[in-house]
Design goal:
single chain, alpha+beta, Jelly Rolls, five-stranded mixed barrel
């Protein structure tokens, strides 16, 4: 981060750290931003935030520079952008002087779901406060004492620091994470997709990295170890969207006359103060209050608004029961577009597939299934064995089991087909790829 002025933050080179499986979804989102290029550092599996930041810091300093890093959770909203820019600029100035900077939110209510920062009573020379200690989600009585003292702030989870500062801190507090990340990063490989660079840490070495969060690995240890850590206050209409109840509060200005926040196709009768998020069908309510209802093609969540943070207990149950819903979705993004699994039964599966203009699936075959393709929108170029044909709307073809085939979109508009699979096994791992534009195995 560089080139600060009085109104905006200028961002230098962009590095995106994400999971290997999410790379093309992240790439699609990046392209929506227009005129922003980035490198992608791809993690083979999730190891929490401390290893992710460590790998990012190694990559950011590999050319001899030492940029300022801004670390921020994705599940937050900030309404006052000028105020945010002001706090961020102040944080950059403090970070350049050394140490870690955390953005602290002035509490507006006795919230027990947030972490708290105890700060010094007086500001330092650059306007920051010295951090005395961190407390994670205290009880209601303790929170009220914090608010009465006027010396506590909510921990936003946003940090500003130089890359070298993080590497120094992680090496001091968790040398095992530092060394394991360094080994994985030094053995990295790189490949390209057009102008996009994918950086892959060594998979075998990566699996040896301990999983830990930034807070537990470093941040909470800094005050007791006298590692320089300061707080800059952020007053920018901030809200944590880590729970659905917070989404209701943020959207409350758009609620109906009964306090219901509605997203999608929703109808209410005698219902008040609910959040209903309908993704794929009509949701109707009768005589309910203070609930969260989230409807998706995969599953439906119904929860009390004041207990919406407890949705993680459902995730734990899914893991214990080894349910696929935790990881698999009906609609799946791919580098060439997406597919949506519409129906499935004994020996058949039906998908809706969309292929981006100019994109192509891999040249592949399946050992256990045949496929019927029906074009419903756009133009399809189909490789079927040694033949290449073009199909337009309302035309179809048949891919025999064991035949090499490929689907491409030669047009300028999205291509959509309905695919009917039939066979003894219909899993996604029954794919043998011979040629792939996206360097997949």
């Amino acid at each position: 981060m560089n080139g600060l002025d009085n109104s905006e933050i200028s961002v230098g080179d962009t590095l995106i750290v994400t999971n290997e499986e999410h790379r093309f979804l992240a790439l699609d989102q990046l392209r929506e931003l227009k005129n922003i290029s980035a490198e992608f550092l791809l993690e083979p599996s999730g190891k929490n935030t401390a290893p992710a930041l460590t790998l990012a810091a190694f990559q950011a300093t590999c050319d001899g520079s030492d940029p300022i890093l801004v670390v921020t959770p994705a599940d937050q909203t900030i309404q006052n952008i000028p105020a945010f820019n002001g706090s961020l600029q102040a944080s950059v100035r403090v970070a350049q002087a050394g140490g870690i900077v955390v953005l602290g939110i002035r509490p507006t209510k006795p919230e027990t779901g947030y972490g708290y920062i105890k700060r010094s009573s007086k500001q330092e020379k650059l306007g920051e406060y010295r951090v005395i200690e961190f407390t994670e989600k205290p009880d209601a009585k303790t929170v009220q004492e914090y608010l009465n003292s006027g010396q506590f702030a909510w921990n936003s989870g946003m940090f500003v620091l130089q890359a070298s500062t993080w590497l120094k801190a992680i090496k001091q507090f968790r040398e095992d994470i530092y060394c394991a990340c360094l080994t994985a990063w030094q053995s990295k490989s790189e490949d390209r997709l057009g102008d996009i660079v994918f950086i892959r840490p060594d998979k075998k070495a990566f699996e040896q990295i301990p999983a830990e969060s930034i807070d537990y690995a470093v941040i909470e240890k800094c005050p007791k170890a006298s590692f320089p850590i300061n707080m800059v206050e952020l007053d920018a209409d901030w809200s944590d969207l880590g729970a659905w109840d917070a989404v209701w509060h943020v959207q409350a200005g758009q609620a109906d006359e009964d306090g219901n926040v509605n997203i999608g196709d929703v109808l209410h009768t005698q219902s008040k103060n609910n959040l209903v998020h309908a993704t794929s069908r009509l949701v109707g309510t009768v005589g309910i209050e203070n609930l969260v209802i989230v409807e998706t093609p995969d599953a439906v969540l119904v929860a009390s608004r004041d207990r919406s943070q407890e949705v993680k207990q459902i995730i734990i149950q899914l893991e214990k029961k080894e349910r696929e819903e935790k990881n698999l979705h009906r609609k799946v993004n791919r580098p060439w577009g997406w597919y949506d699994s519409l129906d499935e039964g004994d020996r058949f599966k039906v998908k809706r597939i969309q292929v981006k203009p100019g994109a192509s699936l891999s040249l592949q075959l399946h050992h256990h299934r045949a496929e019927h393709w029906i074009v419903v929108k756009g133009i399809a170029e189909v490789t079927n064995g040694d033949k290449v044909i073009r199909l337009k709307e309302n035309e179809s073809t048949y891919i025999q089991q064991g035949e090499k085939h490929r689907l491409s979109n030669p047009g300028t508009e999205p291509l959509e087909i309905i695919e009917v699979q039939s066979g003894s096994y219909l899993g996604e791992d029954d794919i043998v790829r011979f040629d792939d534009l996206y360097n997949r195995d």
